[in-house]
Recover the amino acids of this structure.
């Protein structure tokens, strides 16, 4: 049986601009420059594109699942409906334990079963170490993007466009 490949994508700081606080209002949700083009390149190369995002603001009562789904719809519209799935954890680490919440890997595991993914052909792109830890737990390679505190992690890219280039050229292997 042939298994498929995917790129798992953190949302805030990778797909949309990081604003330093919870993002649930559509007018504050800005798709980052180059994201639609990078997703189109990855999709053209045969990758499933799967969003895996922690949304602790739900547990805090700041917003609900409907707001997360509305922003996903906005993202899909901006990116030509390139994304294949959205998984999110609504847990907050101080109030509950959840295997969905990164650095745990249940969101990735669900997508791996759904799309019959080969972890050796998959990537996770995130802006925090916890994103890459979730990938490592299931054998998925990671690329850290943005200007984060984890300066020693390789491979790194400035943004999703740079991460896509590493994936597509095999530089990140």
């Amino acid at each position: 049986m042939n298994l498929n490949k995917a790129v798992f994508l953190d949302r805030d700081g990778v797909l949309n601009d990081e604003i330093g606080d919870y993002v649930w209002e559509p007018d504050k949700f800005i798709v980052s420059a180059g994201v639609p083009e990078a997703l189109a390149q990855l999709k053209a190369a045969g990758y499933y594109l799967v969003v895996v995002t922690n949304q602790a603001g739900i547990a805090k009562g700041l917003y609900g699942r409907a707001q997360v789904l509305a922003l996903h719809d906005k993202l899909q519209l901006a990116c030509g409906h390139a994304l294949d799935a959205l998984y999110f954890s609504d847990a907050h680490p101080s109030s509950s334990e959840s295997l969905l919440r990164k650095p745990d890997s249940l969101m990735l595991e669900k997508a791996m079963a759904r799309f019959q993914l080969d972890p050796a052909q998959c990537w996770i792109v995130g802006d925090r170490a916890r994103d890459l830890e979730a990938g490592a737990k299931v054998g998925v390679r990671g690329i850290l993007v943005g200007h984060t505190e984890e300066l020693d992690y390789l491979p790194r890219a400035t943004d999703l466009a740079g991460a896509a280039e590493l994936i597509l050229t095999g530089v990140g292997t």
About this structure: The mean pLDDT is 89. DSSP finds five helices and six strands in the chain.
